[in-house]
UniProtKB/TrEMBL annotation:
Organism: Janthinobacterium violaceinigrum
Keyword check for Isomerase: yes
Protein name: N-(5'-phosphoribosyl)anthranilate isomerase
Residues annotated as domain N-(5'phosphoribosyl) anthranilate isomerase (PRAI): 6-211
Keyword vocabulary terms for this entry: Amino-acid biosynthesis, Aromatic amino acid biosynthesis, Isomerase, Tryptophan biosynthesis
């Protein structure tokens, strides 16, 4: 199966064009966050989401924590998918599914240890996919993504095997380590931000090298069976 690729921290239509031309399946649009790279105004998120051609998906990364607030954020920006970046109350995600049944929901799980697996049954009934990242939501200034750090892929591999939903892998991925990440974890897709950028801007060469590495990894893993 081909690994899906989501390019996050898209800052403009120009960057969206670059990512799509390179082969991205999805674009991540980062709204206001307590920390981390890439936040852009909601008006620009709405502009990029409206411009993006199908079948490319647009993910709104929201730090809102209640169903009503998340739904309002989605209505203001009109993405195809909402990515909930914090470990919010699962009941709020259930209510969001009721409020916006046609918007796809992705729950971020920050892998700080094996306890991440305990969150699967709480969220799985209410989301379409998970995304494993390397944030620290409990830090004094919460880290909810874009750290550029890898996490324990052995935990992520266990999560993928246990999850009834597709799983994206994020956190410090680049052309040098993506083959090993895919071999260990076997995610449905990967998510990239800082490691395909130079001075904060999407780097076409880094992006091309990453895409080639993913294609090579997919071919090698298919051959291995």
């Amino acid at each position: 199966m081909r690994t899906r690729i989501k390019i996050c921290c898209i800052a403009s239509i120009d960057e969206a064009q670059l990512a799509i031309a390179a082969g991205a399946d999805a674009l991540g649009l980062v709204a206001a966050m307590p920390s981390g790279p890439g936040p852009i105004p909601d008006a620009r998120i709405a502009q990029i989401a409206a411009w993006t051609p199908p079948p490319v998906a647009t993910f709104l990364l929201t730090s809102e924590t209640t169903a009503q607030a998340i739904a309002g954020h989605v209505r203001a920006t009109q993405p195809s998918t909402v990515q909930i970046v914090g470990h919010v109350d699962p009941g709020e995600v259930a209510e969001l599914a009721r409020l916006l049944p046609h918007v796809r929901r992705v729950q971020v799980i920050h892998v700080e240890g094996p306890q991440a697996l305990d969150l699967i049954p709480a969220y799985a009934p209410h989301v379409h996919a998970f995304l494993l990242d390397s944030g620290r939501p409990g830090a004094a200034v919460p880290e909810l993504g874009g750290t550029g750090r890898t996490h324990d892929w052995s935990v992520s591999a266990r999560f993928v095997r246990a999850s009834p939903r597709p799983v994206f892998l994020a956190g410090g991925l680049d052309a040098a380590n993506v083959m090993e990440a895919l071999r260990q974890v076997r995610p449905y897709g990967i998510d990239l931000c800082s490691r395909v950028r130079t001075d904060g801007k999407l780097d076409v060469m880094k992006l091309a090298l990453l895409m080639a590495a993913v294609r090579d990894a997919d071919a090698a893993l298919y051959a291995e069976g």
